[in-house]
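Protocol step 4 of 5: obtain the predicted structure for the target chain.
Materials: sequence only (see below). No template structures provided, no constraints applied. The aim of this step is simply to have a reference model before the mutagenesis design in step 5. Sequence pasted as it appears in the construct record:
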Amino acid sequence: MGFLAPYMFWGLLAISVPLLIHLWNGRKGDKVYWAAFRFLEENDNKPIRHIRLEQWILMILRMILISLLVILMVQLFFDFLSEDSTVQKVHLVEPDQELLQEFRFELNQAIENGDKVILLNEGLDLLDLESFELESVKGKMNLYRALQDNLGSRISLYLTGFKSSFDRSEYLVDSVPQVFIAEMAKPNFSKKAFETHRGKFLFIDKDNELTLSQNGNLTFDELEKGNLRVGVKVQYSEWEKQILSALKAIEEVFELSFEIKESEEIDMLFSDNLKDLKENMVVFDLSYDWTNAQYPNVYFLRSFREKDLKARQQLPSEILGAVLDFHHLSGQEVRMDKEEVQQKFVVGKGNHLSPQTQKANAQEIIWVMFLLVLIAERIVANKSNL
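Step 4 output (structure tokens):
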């Protein structure tokens, strides 16, 4: 339930008008004794309870009339009345076999009802009753593109909840989707590492500890080069010094090497004036333009925003954490709960279904109520000669 024009509630002040009139008409006058007063004693003792009761009823009816007029002005709408049969219901499903089996009944019902059920793989394939048996595809979901392709639809999401499966840190949407988190999905552990210039391996082990090792018996699914080209484009020299100091600290502890470059061929970029975003590099946005938060390769550094000593000491950890996240170096999967997942979906100012884009869908009901109360008020008023 909501109101499209809540500022019109000032009209409720008019409710006091019938009350004041009732109190004014019901006030007691001063008794005046005169010579013929004894002849009026019989009339003076006649009961007036029936008249006063009708006055109360009339006052309440008139107050209800004014209230209904105000509700008409504020344009009341109910969510359950705004269900539009033309709005497509879309179910987006993370490609995971355990998840499909857990929500098989719900997805079958959706397909039978004619809803679109889309698998969040690279091709965004439509799911049908015969395609529930598939190999789980671990990795990033194609969620961002699926949401963009289905703007204006009622979205339901079926997810494992693992943090590494999201392809964006945040998603701009027109309305927050309904989220279902699987309980049976198993976490995926990917062995990936940086190979440093000294022949060591930097990786996250199964205990979620960042480890630097030269053990030749280690095997990894994928290796990243530990030599990263860095571009620093900030207007404050003090910021540049802090960035370079943080990179040097990372080099000394974890043996990753950073080469400062002026060219466009870089792996990392620090900038306070982003123009053209490239997806193949780690980008640190020091302008804190939160509209860039929807891009998976854009990170914000708390150290420059808070500007205190404790935050600055965390700068190397923040930079290294972003680099590891961008290159998908992770240990045991982190499972997010429903509330954490829903926080990833931000209703954009230009896109969301605000009250201004909704339609007052209770006007007809209120008009009928208004006419019925008006008829009742006229009947009581005519009977009471008021």
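Step 4 remarks: Confidence is low (pLDDT under 50) at residues 47-51, 350-357. The chain has three domains: 2-78+361-384, 89-187+335-356, 192-326.
Proceed to step 5.
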